[in-house]
Amino acid sequence: MSQALTEKVKKIALSHGADLVAIVNVSDLPEHNESITSILPTSQTVIVVAAKHSLAAIRSTNNQVAQFDTIHTYDACARAAHITARFLESASFSSAAVPAFIPIEMESPKHGMRGEICWRRAGVRGGLGSYGENGLLVTPEFGSAIRISGLVTSAELTGDSPLDEDVCDHCMKCIEACPAGALMGEGKINKKLCGDVIFKYGLRFFQDFIIDLVNKQPDEAEAVINSYGLREMWQTFMTGNYYYCYKCQSQCLATKFPR
Ligand code: B12
Ligand code: SF4
Ligand code: SF4
C-alpha cells in the first residue's frame, strides 16, 4: 500500500469538486463485492467522494433553486470521481467512476432502489460520518447536506477507519420536518411515502399520465397534453433532477460539532 499515492489521490479529489474524501478497501464492503467485481474485476479500493450542498439553496422554498443546487452538487461529485479515476489510470491503475444515483439498475428485483454501491454505507465505513436517525450519512462538517459518489480502482490504497463517535445529535429535527411522515427514526423509512413526495413528477407520474392519455377520447387528449404536469415532467427530463423535498437533509446540522 502506498501512503504517498493515497495522499495524492485525496488531494486530487479535494481539488476537483470533493469536499470530503475517504478510502475504503473492497474487503471492507463485502455487501457490494459482487457489483464491485462486475464493474472492475481487479478492484482493490473504493474511493468515496462527497460534495456539500448550499444549505441556503436546499432550504429555499423555491424548489427549482434546490434542484439546481442538487444538479451541481452531483456534478461536483462526478468531476472529482472522474478526474481521480483518470489520474489513477494515467498511473497504470485500472479505475472506473461509479454513478451517484442514476443511471441505476431498473430491472427486477432492484427497480431503481439499490445502487451498485450504497454510498451511505461506503461513507460510514470510510469514516466520513455515521448513520443518522434520518437513515442518511451524517458528517461532522456538513450534517446530511451532502451528495456522495466515488470510484473503484485496482490501486491498493491505505484505507480510512470508521469514526468512533456518533455524529447524529438525535435531535429528531429530520423526523419532525418530514412532510410525508416517512421517517420512523433509527434510519427506518417508508420508501413509498418518501417517493411519492420526492418523485412527484417522476416515473409513477409518467406511467399515470400515459394511462390517463390512452383512456381519453381524442377531443379530451389535448387538455392532458397541455397540462401543467406534463410541462413539469418535461423539466425533470431535461435537467435530470426530479426531487421535490430536501427536508431531512436540510434540517440536519448535527450541531454538536462546531463549524
Ligand atoms: C434508493 C435510494 C433512495 C430510496 C430509498 C432510500 C432509503 N433510505 O433506503 C428513496 C427514493 C426513498 C430515496 C430517498 C432519498 N434519497 Co436517496 N438514494 C437511493 C440510492 C440511489 C440507493 C440506496 C441503496 O442502494 N439502498 C439499498 C440499501 C443499501 O439500503 P437499505 O437496505 O435501506 O440499507 C441501509 C440501512 O440498513 C442502513 N443501516 C444499516 N445499519 C444501520 C444502523 C443505523 C443506526 C441506521 C440509522 C441505518 C443503518 O444502512 C444501509 C445503507 O447504508 C442512493 C445512492 C446510492 N447509490 O447509494 C441515494 C441516496 C441514499 N439518496 C440520497 C438522498 C439525499 C435522498 C433524499 C433526501 C431525496 C433527495 N432530495 O435527494 C431522500 C432521503 C430519504 C431518507 N431519509 O432516507 C443521498 C444520501 C446522502 C446522505 N447524506 O446520506 C444518496 C446517497 C444519493 C447520493 N449519491 O448522494 N433514496
Ligand atoms: S436532524 Fe438530528 S436526529 Fe436527524 S439525523 Fe440530523 S442530527 Fe440526527
Ligand atoms: S426527502 Fe422529504 S419526504 Fe423523503 S424522507 Fe426526507 S423529509 Fe421525508
Give the SSE map.
Blueprint: H1 3-14, E1 20-25, H2 33-39, E2 45-52, H3 55-59, H4 63-90, E3 95-98, H5 119-125, E4 130-131, E5 137-138, E6 146-153, H6 173-177, E7 183-185, E8 188-189, H7 191-198, H8 203-215, H9 218-225, H10 228-239, H11 247-250
Antiparallel strand pairs: 1-2, 2-6, 3-6, 4-5, 7-8
Helix pairs in contact: 1-4
The chain binds cobalamin (B12) and iron/sulfur cluster (SF4) (2 copies).
Provide a compact summary of the structure.
Helix content is 42%, strand content 14%. It has a four-stranded antiparallel beta sheet, sandwiched between helices. Strands 4-5 form a two-stranded antiparallel ribbon. With 259 residues, it is α+β, with helices and mostly antiparallel strands.
